[in-house]
Write a structure and sequence with these properties.
The chain has about 200 residues and is of the alpha/beta class. The chain is about 30% helix and about 20% strand. The longest helix has 12 residues. It is globular and about 40 Å long.
C-alpha cells in the first residue's frame, strides 16, 4: 500500500438502496441471526481504522455507526455514496467499500485488495466482471466521482474513463476468494441461495 497511512483507511458500507426487491430495509435483514449491516461493518473493521455507513439515514439503524448521508438529488446508487464520502474524508484516504447486501465479504479479501493499492482504484474482476462494491478507491477521486454522478453515470461508467488496477483471478486465488465476498442479497431467494452455497458468514 503506497501513499496512504494505515490510519487513513476508511471502511464504507454502501447502504443507499431502498431494498424494494427484498421488501424491507436490507441493512436489517438477518443472516445467521445478525443484520447484514453488522456482518459487513465487522469485516471492514477488521481491515480499516474507521467504518462509516453511506446512504439515506433510517432511524432504526443510523445510530449504529457513524453515518454520512448521500447529498442532494444525487442519491443514485453506489456512486452517490462514493462521491459523498470522498468529499467528506479529504484527499489522503483510501476507501474500502462494500455493499450492505454483501454479508459474506471476507476480511482476508479486503486486506489483499488494500495491500494491492498503489495509487489507483483496486477492483476485483472475476470472469471479467468488475465487482465495484467490493473494492478500494482513493479519496482523491472526489472530483471525478462527482462529475460522473452529475452526468448521470455509475461507478462502472466512471471506471470506463478512469484507470484502475484489476484484482485478477490469480490475486483472488492467492487469498482464497471464491466469490462470496461480492455475493449480493437482493431478494429472499438470494438469501436462501447464499446460505446454501456458503453457510453462515464468518468474521474471517
Amino acid at each position: 500500500m503506497v501513499g496512504i497511512a494505515s490510519g487513513n483507511l476508511v471502511g464504507v458500507v454502501l447502504a443507499g438502496g431502498a431494498g424494494r426487491r427484498m421488501g424491507q430495509d436490507k441493512a436489517l435483514v438477518e443472516v445467521a441471526h445478525r443484520p447484514m449491516l453488522d456482518w459487513v461493518a465487522d469485516a471492514l473493521a477488521a481491515v480499516t481504522a474507521r467504518v462509516v455507513v453511506s446512504g439515506e439515514p433510517r432511524p432504526r439503524w443510523a445510530d449504529r455507526l457513524p453515518f454520512i448521508e448521500d447529498t442532494g438529488a444525487a442519491r443514485r446508487g453506489p456512486l452517490a455514496g462514493l462521491a459523498t464520502v470522498t468529499e467528506e474524508v479529504g484527499p489522503d484516504a483510501l476507501l474500502v467499500v462494500v455493499g450492505v447486501d454483501q454479508p459474506w465479504v471476507r476480511p482476508a479479501t479486503l486486506r489483499a485488495i488494500v495491500d494491492g493499492f498503489t495509487d489507483l482504484p483496486v477492483v476485483p474482476v472475476p470472469d471479467g466482471v468488475r465487482q465495484t462494491t467490493c473494492a478500494a478507491y482513493p479519496s482523491n477521486l472526489a472530483l471525478v466521482a462527482t462529475r460522473e454522478l452529475n452526468a448521470g453515470g455509475s461507478i462502472q461508467s466512471m471506471l470506463d474513463r478512469t484507470a484502475f488496477d484489476p484484482f485478477t483471478e490469480a490475486d483472488l486465488e492467492s487469498c482464497g476468494e471464491d466469490g462470496r465476498s461480492w455475493f449480493s442479497v437482493n431478494t429472499p431467494e438470494d438469501l436462501t441461495t447464499g446460505l446454501d452455497r456458503y453457510g453462515a458468514p464468518s468474521p474471517e
